[in-house]
Amino acid sequence: MATALNDFMQEVKTKNPGEAEFHQAVEEVVETLLPVLDKHPEYRKARIMERMVEPERVIMFRVPWMADNGEVRVNRGYRIEFSSAIGPYKGGLRFHPSVTLSILKFLGFEQIFKNSLTTLPMGGGKGGSDFDPKFKSKNEIMRFCQSFMSELFRHIGPNTDVPAGDIGVGGQEIGYMFGQYKKLRNSFDGVLTGKGLSWGGSLIRPEATGFGVVYFANEMLATKGQSFEGKTVTISGFGNVAWGAATKVNQLGGKVVTLSGPDGYIHDPDGISGEKIEYMLELRASNQDIVEPYAEQFGVEFVPNKHPWEVKCDIALPCATQNELNEEDAKNLIANGCLCISEGANMPTTPEAAKLILESDILYGPAKAANAGGVAVSGLEMTQNSIRMNWSREEVDNHLHRIMKNIHQSCLVAADTYGTSGNYVAGANIAGFTKVADAMLAQGVV
Ligand code: NDP
Ligand code: 2IT
Questions:
Q1: Cβ contact 194:166 at 8 Å
Q2: Which of 70, 216, 364, 401 fits a 20 to 30 Å CA distance from 347?
Q3: Which domains does the chain have, with CATH numbers?
Q4: How many CB atoms lie within 10 A of CB 47?
Q5: Is 126 annotated as catalytic?
Q6: What are phi and psi of 91, to 5 degrees?
Q7: pLDDT tens digits, 262-273
């Protein structure tokens, strides 16, 4: 088994040199899929895995724009159209200075399995730019988004590729990009999700990822007769996903005690609720990329340059970014008696940390399953656009809740079937993979 994995990874590394995050995401998936490939020689024969790690198309382009002071700036734009086996390419756009081809390929690859788990007909994709929204004016952000879409528009469409938000891309950016797409195509299409409510958006989309993370955690806790009621919860990040998760934890009777940013974390032992949750939206909109102002605003402790995982908690929800929970963090969580980890961010846990967590008694929901609520409601936004109708908050939330329960169940069943009961990482990979692999077999060698 180890040799098969090493051989496969050697080839992936040779073909994709220097793409550390992409290698990490592929290895984590392939490791858990070997038993499936052993049981299904037809997948091996059709080289399903080898085809899946090769994006169907990678688009890279120049994004020139003009700063307020008249200077010309140049960024790089990307769209990775990874898999269209079960539906149009679907996945977010990330604007952050750390964006590279490797990061977007890891995200696009994971999106294939995540989207498959939602049960909705969506393929996998991801895109973005190394543009840094920090300290940019609204006009600069608008000009950047327009320039980005001036190239992207020719590659996307409601039945081809439907981008959405991710880090650094929220309702404002989706609005500017949608306006430019519509102008260039002269067509009002459901080509992006996360749109404003008056122009094709869905209720609950902003909350969906965070709500889903908490619904998934709640399902895991229920297997042990537990719930959020009275539990202490640590959250990292302070963006869209962290905000949705904090809102739902409060609704379910839990207490959120931390948030974090690239500058460190804040510890609020009284609980982050009510106006403090609303303050997160101000922090995010300030474009400063720091969480410290929360500590000043509410008179709580700020711990610079550290992760919140050293704070004792019952439930941990990483909602910031990739590889933000390392081996030392995992040791802290285990030593402090953490019951459950549900991943809001994509690949927030390093491989070393994940290994320790899987060996412990912690209920561990991997990103592909736990944060699938965001893209699931994006899928519901596409459905509403297609039928030219809008559903109520309750209707969308009920669909989301049902989808998260189904994903939880699919993970448990798949893990059971392959002898790894209770391992949600293996379960999510296997359940997500099987549907895509069968579609690829049915569609021949394309
Ligand atoms: P936002 O832009 O709204 O917020 C991102 C958050 O992460 C901010 O708090 C951001 O701060 C923080 N952050 C970024 N880099 C670091 C770092 N190195 N250390 C600590 N904090 C950091 O993005 P989202 O909330 O949308 O995304 C958060 C995570 O959730 C990402 O991993 C994303 O891929 C994932 N996700 C998002 C979905 C969505 O629908 N939006 C769906 C599923 C997953 P700053 O902006 O200042 O860097
Ligand atoms: O990582 C993700 O699933 C997202 N950023 C959401 C993608 C989407 O198309 O809604």
A1: no
A2: 401
A3: 57-187 (3.40.50.10860), 206-370 (3.40.50.720)
A4: 12
A5: yes
A6: 165, 165
A7: 999 999 999 999
